[in-house]
UniProtKB/TrEMBL annotation:
Keyword terms: Membrane, Transmembrane, Transmembrane helix
Organism of origin: Methylobacterium terrae
A cellular component annotation (GO) from this entry: membrane
Keyword Membrane listed: yes
Lineage: Bacteria, Pseudomonadati, Pseudomonadota, Alphaproteobacteria, Hyphomicrobiales
Protein name: Bifunctional diguanylate cyclase/phosphodiesterase
UniProt domain EAL: residue ranges: 24-274
Top-level taxonomic group: Bacteria
């Protein structure tokens, strides 16, 4: 293929391309060892009931601290780890860590864990979920797996079979980033979702943008019709939250309500209240 290009083009691009390929290879390599080297940590972002304003659960979000590169964002390293397959080990680590963490909370709050298409389609994924629940002694109803629509298109028959087995354990399934996939509506009908997480692009300025508001109302109507709660992602302003409250959106998550952080930042939510405040 390179032979078809002019010699000058070839000479010009080669060093840049070679550097990019080297960089990518080194990331792939480092990702394969990041779990054992202890470079990952999990941050937690609260999910809130809109009507009561109370925290009902947390989403677990993965962070990679690379020894030389510093913090590498998940939108960069998750796709690479999916291509090389290292997401399987990484995702298993996330599942074990988060279930163990959630099982230690005094309050039986939900823990939402992102699951990649590669994990969902890997043989033994349902068994892994079951094993982790048994080992950590976490009640299945407290675990929610977040799955994007794009994760379903690879092999819908297999994905459906796996989701059904996981659901049969009592684990909940949320459709993540709703509205950004290929065929959101047919996916809602075909797969056993328990919740719709509407993508944050539909929340941005929902209080002032008529089109965004119309879409948001339609999704909330859809949720009501299907009996599925809707969670709004990426809520950043109190005006956006007020809109969601007025439209009876069930749950919200976003920087306004809490940025992802170490679980230690949120202990007051995971512990039962004690003392005088409790009796009041
Ligand atoms: P996601 O599952 O849709 O997660 C929500 C993303 O939105 C997170 O980005 C979160 O930090 C960000 N976010 C939350 N509230 C706000 C807000 O008010 N404004 C804005 N602008 N952003 C907000 P993050 O942590 O960078 O994660 C990006 C994506 O990486 C996630 O999207 C998810 O698809 C993936 N990811 C993260 N952790 C994991 C994991 O453990 N496993 C897998 N398979 N994917 C993961
Ligand atoms: Mg998510
Ligand atoms: Mg999302
Ligand atoms: Mg996302």
């Amino acid at each position: 293929c390179a032979k078809n290009h002019g010699r000058g083009v070839h000479r010009f691009f080669e060093p840049v391309l070679a550097a990019q390929i080297r960089d990518r290879r080194s990331l792939e390599h480092d990702l394969r060892h990041a779990v054992e080297r202890g470079e990952f940590r999990i941050v937690y972002q609260p999910q809130m009931a809109v009507d009561s304003g109370t925290v009902v659960g947390f989403e677990a979000l993965l962070r990679w601290q690379h020894p030389e590169r510093g913090a590498v964002p998940p939108d960069l390293f998750i796709p690479i780890s999916e291509e090389t397959g290292s997401i399987l080990g990484i995702g298993e680590w996330v599942l074990r860590e988060t279930c163990r963490e959630a099982a230690s909370w005094e309050k039986p709050l939900r823990i939402a864990v992102n699951v990649s298409a590669v994990q969902l389609h890997a043989p033994g994924f349902a068994e892994l979920v079951h094993e982790v629940l048994v080992v950590t002694d976490l009640s299945p109803a407290r675990l929610e797996l977040e799955i994007t629509e794009t994760a379903l298109v690879r092999d819908p028959v297999r994905a459906l079979a796996t989701l059904r087995r996981i659901k049969a354990m009592g684990v909940r399934i949320a459709m993540d980033d709703f509205g950004t996939g290929y065929s959101s509506l047919s996916n809602l009908r075909a797969f056993p979702f328990d919740k719709i997480k509407i993508d944050r692009s539909f929340i941005r300025a929902v209080d002032v943008n008529r089109e965004t508001a119309a879409i948001m109302r339609a999704v909330l109507g859809l949720g009501r019709g299907l009996g599925l709660p809707v969670l709004a992602e990426g809520v950043e302003t109190s005006a956006e939250l007020a809109f969601l409250g007025a439209e009876n959106c069930h749950e919200a998550q976003g920087y306004l309500l809490g940025r992802p952080g170490p679980i230690a930042h949120f202990v007051e939510h995971t512990r039962e209240a004690q003392g005088a405040a409790d009796a009041a």
